[in-house]
Every structure is written in structure tokens, then in C-alpha cells.
Amino acid sequence: MAVFLLALGAACCLGLGFVLQQQAAQRAPRSDLLRWRLLLDLLRMPQWLLGTAFMVAGLALSALALDRGEVSLVEPLLATNLLFAMGLARILTRQSLGRSGWAGVLLLALGVTTFIVAGRPQGGGTQAGALRYWLVVGIVVGLTLLLVSTARRMPLLEEATLLALAAGLLYGLQDALTRTVAQRLDTDGLGVVLRSWEPYAVLAAGVVGLLLVQSAFEAAPLRMSLPALTAAQPLTGIVCAVALLGDRLRVTPGALAWQAVGLLCIVAGVVMLGRHPAMPGAGPGAGAGREKPPP
């Protein structure tokens, strides 16, 4: 029960933080896109600082959840951050959920429940060796670089989606590495952890992911970035947890089928909610007429 409460608390904080950050990031100069100067400019905005405080609280709660439960259990629960983002967005835009909004809520909740019940995630498997560790990390980092380089050649709306996908990949990897750090901290102590590479990889993934997310928030309305981020993070986290940490899911044909249904419902619910009119900037013509900054 503690893992569920911590993960849902993290999702709440993350959802509120994302909305506040996007409201601030869209006021940043377009020339800051994908530049570290963007973060320096955002640091001067009180609304962004408040959103970042919520985000840090969410990351802290998610770290506690990952310390107590498996990544493959926590990640689907973290995907519910979009529900809390939807609630704040509804207050900001004064729009009701409507049929499509409630359908998205139902799909997301159903998907999370189906995946957890069907998969029965649990730890205890054999952790990956060094070769598989670096292979998985290299694949995630390589895909992230590919998405970012492709995004730079796309229009702003599409660029925001690809940047959010790239950030989701990094955040999913970060969650798996956070679990590794927590396990090593429990068994080996702080001194050994600080001499390993994982905590610094967690920090690097968080900082680079933050730049990508804020650039996506700046480039286009929240509906173009948050669904991609919310869908990519749990899927990447689950894959990394199974590949690196030895997390185990039920692999009977029926269980696998229901897990696939659950993941599809999560993705469909995220997309429906993210494109709902209650999302900031999701109205007709949102994001139109915005020029892309020079490279």
C-alpha cells in the first residue's frame, strides 16, 4: 500500500509541476530552444520555480516508491500524472472534461489496473551483467540522440513531441538507475554508492531530460509534449527494469495478452487526455503561427 500511495503522490506532484512549468516556459525567448540559457531564463520566473518545486517533490516521492517497490509496478502508477495535470488544466482553462476527457481518464485507470493485475510485477530475478548494462544504456542514449537530431529538422509542433519522447526515454532509464542506486545504498552504504557511476548517470539523465522537457514545453502547447512524455517514460522504465534489474512479469500467454492490452490502454488514455481541450493551448489553432528559432 505504501508503494501505491508514494507513486500516486509522485504522480500528483509531477502533473502539477508540468503544467506550471509549461505555462512559464512558453513565455521564454524562442532563441533559447534546446540551449542551456533556457534554464537560466526560467530560473527568473516564480511560476516555473513553483512548478520545479512540485517536480522535485514528485521525483523524491518516486525515488521512495522505487526503493520500496519494483520499477515495473511503480512506472504505470507514475503515468497517472496526466490525470492531475488535467485537473489543474481544467481550473486554468475552466473547461469541463466532457466525453473524450472521461474516456481518457477511464482508459488510463483501466490500463494501469490491467497491467498490474495481469503482470503481477515482482523483483528477485538476476540482475544484468556489465555488458548488458552498457548495451541497454547505450541503446537508450542512442535513441535519445536520434530523436533530438531528428526533432531539430522538424516544425515546432512535431519537434515538441519528439523532444518529449526523448526526455521520456531518459526519465525511464533514470527511474531504473534510481532503483539500482537505492538497492546498492541499502546493501553497500553511501561510500560505495558515491564511488559508482550510477548516481552520476541519474543526475545527468535528470538534467538533460529537464532541458529537453522545458524545450518541448516552450516549443508547443502542452498537448503536443506531455502525452509523449507520459507514455514513453513508463514503457522505457519497464523495459529497463526487466533488462537490467531482473524484474519479472507473468509470461503466460493470457498474462502477456492482458499486459499488452493494459499498456495500449495507458498509451491511448494518455493521448486522449493530452489532446483534450482542457489542456493549456489545446484549442483550435493552438501553436499556429509560431516561427522556429534559427539554429
Q: How would you concisely characterize the structure shown here?
A:
The protein is mostly helical and 295 residues long. 75% of the residues lie in helices and 0% in strands.
Question: How would you describe this structure to a colleague?
Answer:
With 295 residues, the protein is mainly alpha-helical. Helix content is 75%, strand content 0%. It is built from twelve helices and no strands. The radius of gyration is 18 Å and the shape is globular. The termini are far apart. Residues 283-290 have low confidence and may be disordered.
Supply database-style keywords:
295 residues; mainly alpha; 12 helices
Helical segment count: 12
**What shape does the CA trace take?**
globular
The percentage helix is over 70%
Radius of gyration: 18 Å
Intertermini distance: 49 Å
What sequence of helices (H) and strands (E) makes up the elements?
HHHHHHHHHHHH
What is the subunit arrangement here?
Answer: single chain
- Estimate the strand proportion: under 5%
Total count of strands: 0
Average of pLDDT: 82
What's the story with the biggest beta sheet? none
Structural class of the secondary elements? mainly alpha
Low-confidence stretches: 283-290
